[in-house]
Amino acid sequence: MRWVATYIGFLRAINLGAKRKFPQDAIRAAVEAAGGTDVETYLNTGNVRFDTRLRSRARIERTLEDAFEADRGFAVPTIVFTPTQLREIADRAASFGHGGRHYVSLLKESPSAAAVAEVEALASAEEVARVSGRAVHLLLGANYHQARLTNAVIERHLGVATNRNLTVIEALADKWAR
To answer: Residues 3-13: pLDDT tens digits?
Structure first.
């Protein structure tokens, strides 16, 4: 039997408007068509757990992105983590002791130290960004929709990212990264 590993994929910019629909059943089918097995989805925001024989994270992401574009007709940037990495992201959140809104931007690539310093310097009394590996913890005030630190800002400084609230990150870690 060949080596198989579990990954958790986060799809960016789906189900936003009429032209970027990607239902859960179609995501599962596309992951299976790309060679994934034991595929599960969670919520309709582009969270998918799967097993694969591929070993390279970059190759896994590229394979999924090719399958998603073939299925949907539009590009779907995809960011994958191992269950252990996802658990670490969820556990790291507790160390911040933040009582407000907490979102996590998941990065496709590891940022440079200079880029991290640039993003963390954007902090204000109401909003803070803490970069930990390929995760940016956005510690925000009460209204996410008025925040200055958004996933778009993170992408301008650190590259392709997708954003989830901490509740979803913790739920996925509890479900798929025990």
So the answer is: 899 999 999 98
